[in-house]
Design goal:
It contains 21 helices and 17 strands. By secondary structure, the chain is an alpha/beta fold. The chain folds into two domains: 182 residues, D-Maltodextrin-Binding Protein, domain 2 (3-Layer(aba) Sandwich); 204 residues, D-Maltodextrin-Binding Protein, domain 2 (3-Layer(aba) Sandwich), CATH 3.40.190. β4 and β5 form a beta hairpin. α4 crosses α13.
Length: 546
């Protein structure tokens, strides 16, 4: 997850200001030209070729959108020719300039626009309501909306739909805050996998004191992580969720329609005490707050195993990401821990949606054609063809080929052939649109693909996390859309994450006393605007939910 380009609550500085006040006024929609469009899921889309102008950042792994095998195939398949507008420089700046200039293409694709940005474009009359075209032609889009209702909510404004989001609903997006333990050490020391914070503490002590790697040296590192809230690799989210559920990073949640912030709760304070105990007794790696991924991977891949446990959505956060090394294969996930007061939780990704990736502008004279052209990308076949790198083969599974879930697979991915590697193995090619985010990966698809290549180990590890953690997911972490008028204020509060990370590290390393300095810490957070931040979130939550 990659970086999680998960639409958390848009923890980024919005560029709404770049749109405000520029461009066409409402009511200036181009006249829709009536053309005969084929029935849903039937191709070609039209008998007489139609041209659409599409603005799209150049996808990674793609040399040319025009001289491109998928582009040519899809034009023949649909009878829709695309006039590409692909910026050669900074795509965001090119997009801003285009909006400011008032000369819009028919379609804007792969920009990952936030709700706030789409709202601003709608207020200026730039984006078209496509709800009736989705209802008529969006077979695959509607299926995605049914399976991921929040995706539809994300692009719906007062019953009007102003775009289609990119959505990944696969099993590996459900949970990211996992803890991995080196299983050979559990077996050697005859230790059961821990299920409580106390059992976890005792396991770490055994790793430190009983020489589980058998080299006669006290070189074991019982627990290491990368920083505090560094995606799922940080030390906070997994351990703190035995005291108060948190994902790290964003840190706010909703309880009984009240927005609260994790980092000011008494339960958070208790979690800090527990983590400090691990640090003080040498069970938590002393360089956890400064180590980077390369350094942690060197620890995880040591010839003589020295790392007992580490957090991450899969072991690639602290081991070789190829998933082929003995150490990588030896790490197994343990359950969420139950804390001293019975709290036991894991926090899901807030949304599988990563922004609005397809919008039809009011300049478009053929919106029904545009929607149907897009709809194919929300099918498994279309998404796979569109994003293929030309390496490997994606096909219907044969009887007996099993998916990640252990059941009959629907699809199979085969390793690249020597011919494919020679032709497309340079990293970029003209095979398809390899890095385009537009489209949908369904849960069913993700668990029913048989991986025959090197990615099999990674897929198995990620599915282990889903199976292990899914029953402990809590639902207090919501998505809140920030109104355009609050965007600037919201952006001012984003440094709070790194500031809280800094306090966390100071509490754990002893630079601050958890007991003596707690009230001072709360006062300083108030001075940094945390209470105003929560009030802003509450105001926007109420606007959407009351």
């Amino acid at each position: 997850m990659k970086k999680r380009i998960l639409c958390l609550v848009l923890a980024l500085v919005l560029v709404v200001a770049a749109f405000t006040g520029c461009g066409r006024k409402k009511g200036a929609d181009a006249e829709v030209i009536d053309v005969s469009v084929s029935a849903p899921n039937e191709f070609p889309i039209v008998e007489e070729k139609i041209t659409l102008k599409v603005f799209m950042p150049k996808p990674r792994n793609t040399n040319d959108m025009v001289d491109n095998e998928f582009t040519k195939w899809y034009e023949e398949y649909t009878n829709v020719h695309i006039e590409w507008i692909v910026p050669t420089g900074d795509a965001q700046q090119a997009f801003n300039n285009m909006i400011a200039g008032g000369d819009y293409p028919d379609v804007i694709m792969d920009m990952g626009l936030s709700r706030e940005q789409v709202m601003s474009l709608e207020e200026q009359g730039i984006v078209r309501d496509i709800s009736k075209y989705i209802e008529k032609q969006g077979v695959n889009i509607n299926k995605m909306f049914e399976e991921v209702p929040k995706a539809k909510e994300y692009v719906t404004f007062e019953d009007k739909i102003y775009g289609v989001p990119s959505v990944n609903n696969s099993y590996n997006t459900k949970v990211s805050n996992a803890m991995w333990v080196y299983e050979p050490w559990l077996k050697k020391l005859n230790i059961e996998a821990p299920t409580t914070t106390e059992e976890f503490y005792e396991m770490l002590k055994a790793f430190k004191e009983q020489d589980p790697n058998g080299n006669g040296k006290a070189d074991e590192i019982p627990l290491a992580a990368r920083g505090v809230s560094n995606y799922s690799a940080g030390i906070e989210a997994y351990l703190m969720s035995a005291f108060i559920p948190t994902e790290g990073n964003v840190r706010w949640y909703v309880e009984n329609d009240k927005v609260k912030h994790v980092a000011v709760q008494d339960e958070y304070k208790e979690g800090l005490k527990y983590i400090k105990k691990l640090y003080d007794e040498g069970l938590l790696y002393e360089d956890t707050f400064i180590v980077d991924r390369t350094q942690l991977t060197a620890i995880g891949e040591s010839d003589t195993p020295i790392l007992g446990t580490s957090p991450g959505s899969y072991p690639g956060f602290f081991c070789n990401t190829s998933g082929t090394t003995p150490n990588y294969k030896a790490y197994v996930p343990i359950l969420p821990l139950e804390g001293p007061k019975g709290v036991r939780a894991t926090v899901p990704n807030r949304s599988a949606c990563s922004g609005t990736s397809f919008i039809v502008t009011t300049s478009c004279k053929y919106p029904e054609v545009a929607v149907k052209w897009c709809d194919y990308f929300y099918s498994t076949e279309g998404r796979r063809k569109m994003t293929s790198t030309g390496l490997g083969t994606f096909r219907k599974a044969e009887p007996g080929e099993l998916g990640i879930s252990g059941k009959q697979a629907l699809w199979t991915t085969e390793p690249a052939t020597e011919e494919q590697i020679a032709k497309y193995g340079s990293g970029t090619s003209n095979y398809a649109w390899g890095g385009s985010p537009t489209g949908y990966t369904s849960f069913e698809e993700s668990v029913s693909i048989c991986n025959l290549g090197a990615s099999l180990e990674n897929s198995k590890k990620l599915y282990q996390i889903y199976e292990t953690y899914s029953e402990f997911i809590v639902d207090t972490f919501k998505t809140i859309t920030i109104a355009p008028e609050d965007a600037d204020e919201y952006a001012r509060y984003q440094p709070l994450t790194s500031q809280i990370d800094s306090y966390f590290a100071k509490f754990i390393t002893g630079e601050l006393s958890i007991e003596k300095d707690w009230d001072k810490y709360l006062k300083e957070l108030d001075g940094l605007g945390i209470n105003d931040y929560v009030a802003l979130l509450q105001r926007n939550y109420d606007r959407e939910n009351k």
